[in-house]
Amino acid sequence: MLRVHDLTRRFGRLMALDHVSFEISAGTIHGLIGPNGSGKTTFFNLVTGFLPANEGKVFWDGRDVTGLPPHRISRLGLARTFQNTSNYARLTVRENLVIASRNHIESSALARMLHLRSARSEEARHGRSADALLERFGMRDLADVQAAQLPGGTQKILGVAIALSTNPRLVMLDEPLAGLNTGEKAQLMTILRGLCADGLTLLLIEHDMKAIMQACDRITVLSYGTLLAEGTPEEISRDPATIKAYLGTEVA
User: Fold this and answer.
1) Which of these, 29, 38, 28, 36, lies nearest to 20 by C-alpha position?
2) Full residue range of the structural domain in which residue 195 is found
3) How far is Cα 83 from Cα 115, in angstroms, rounded to an integer?
4) 144 and 172 share a domain?
């Protein structure tokens, strides 16, 4: 589904990502782990077009999408979240979801300007999609709450819902559990597993090793910009190089 080959990014003399190659299979939850500074977020930025690669290729369904801008990457079905909350703070929760769903607009600009039936019908679909996500994420009672008024953890969960509003096939989640309490973590992981069961593919950067080991089908480990290991959670938890570089002896 998603394949990267020799993906490389330098910042001056710093090698942030050094000829990294791996692939993600459709319908799986794939973990991307590693110490801080190992290149995980840089990888996200390269794949989604927020940064250009110095070398290497990104393939989506066999198509070379290297260097495409973020809006074109998104329209191909790749969505992402960010470490920090990312929403329209002054808009309501529902309005955030509706705006994100407009990533895929089929009616013409003229139809929207004149409020023709095709544009009204499409806008109604965006509203229904937003309502479905509100229900799935347990946020129906927060629909009319301004995003800025939400607690930090709830804003993180909203960020995931916003990514889902673009109707993606692959969602790349950058530390989705950071800042969430225990109940919020359990709620979000249940939702994510349900989305995967429905056919969505997920790539997670996460430092919560318990969640990663329980949820992921495969895990890729980065260290200092290089690919250190790849395998099932069981294989990664027993890999000596990973334990030394990141997991710690208590996980072995």
Assistant:
1) 38
2) 1-77+168-252
3) 37
4) no
Q: What local confidence, expressed as pLDDT, does residue 252 receive?
A: 35
Residues with Cβ < 8 Å from 245, sequence gap 6 or more?
34, 35, 221, 223, 228
User: Both 156 and 177 in a single domain?
Assistant: no
What are the per-10-residue average pLDDT scores of the chain (252 residues)?
A: 96 95 95 92 95 96 94 91 78 90 57 58 74 92 94 89 91 91 90 91 92 93 94 93 71 38
pLDDT at 248: 59
Amino acid 121: pLDDT: 67
Inside any domain, residue 205:
yes
**CATH number of the domain where residue 227 is located:** 3.40.50.300
Burial 94-132, CB ≥16 within 10 A → b, else e: bbbbbbbbeeeeeeeeebbeeeeeebeebbeebeebbee
Same domain, 72 and 173: yes
Do 115 and 10 reside in the same domain of the chain? no
* Residue 217, CA distances (Å) to 29, 125, 162, 212, 222 in order: 6, 33, 24, 9, 17
Question: Residue 58 domain-assigned?
Answer: yes
